[in-house]
């Protein structure tokens, strides 16, 4: 909304009072970003042009969400080289210190950083762009000062400065945030242990050979990597050795997989063979066992054969010979053993009777 100066006339031709004009000026401060579909703007593109007086706030007032007509402007600065989760976490803390806050992030230029801290991996343009795409940042200030001056704080209407509470000694000072702390404008954040730009650089230096070999394999030249001719040949040879090791490893894994599949199939075949053998044995016993079908069939057939070969029995009405039915002819040589003779006379009598019987038959 365009801001009209105090004393400007309204549509009715009546000049506005100073209080009405001040009320219009109170709402011109940039508001926090509500959408994350675009990167955060740079301060020199959308600087705070609010003409309303910037009242000094206490931390207690800011925590209550006052003033209601503008956000609390929080400033955080740094180098932000190799932007990582530790940086993002610090900015998240700065953004959430107060209920309604507008986070400005200052990024130092290459000249200042190389002068007071050292060489960086990312140049200043890359570091600016990395901060613009952090979700917690509302505005990025390029070429931020190393030491915060009252003029800088007034220009950007900064209410509080957020940083970890560890004294930051640099540029001949034991703590560059000492005057900010004394003014009651400092709010501490917590460092994330286990990660920092120095830690990442230490890992790269420690594993330099690994990264050099990897980038040579990806197509970078030895000149781009600042690698000597001898080291280049050594790295390329090591890459070939690693490829051979990888091939051998793949062959071993494939052979193990093949053996495993063969074992699985053999187990399946053995299991099927056992099932078939059990089925065969069961059928065999059912057919040829003690109570099997084959025995019953054999008994039935043998019974039929015996009936076929055995003579027929004479009928009950067949004629009999004309002799006493109680006496059956006996051969002359058969001796009656049931009643042996008690004396020689009896034996001779029995022999004479047998001879008489034979003469009668003749």
UniProtKB/TrEMBL annotation:
Its EC number is 2.7.7.15. The keyword Transferase applies. The keyword Lipid metabolism applies. It comes from the Eukaryota. Residues 1-27, 308-362 are annotated as: Disordered. Residues 75-203 form the Cytidyltransferase-like domain. Residues 314-327, 344-355 have a biased composition (Low complexity). Keywords: Lipid biosynthesis, Lipid metabolism, Nucleotidyltransferase, Phospholipid biosynthesis, Phospholipid metabolism, Transferase. Pathway: Lipid metabolism; Phospholipid metabolism; phosphatidylcholine biosynthesis; phosphatidylcholine from phosphocholine: step 1/2. Catalyzes the key rate-limiting step in the CDP-choline pathway for phosphatidylcholine biosynthesis. Belongs to the cytidylyltransferase family. This is choline-phosphate cytidylyltransferase. The lineage of its organism: Eukaryota, Metazoa, Chordata, Craniata, Vertebrata. The gene is PCYT1B.
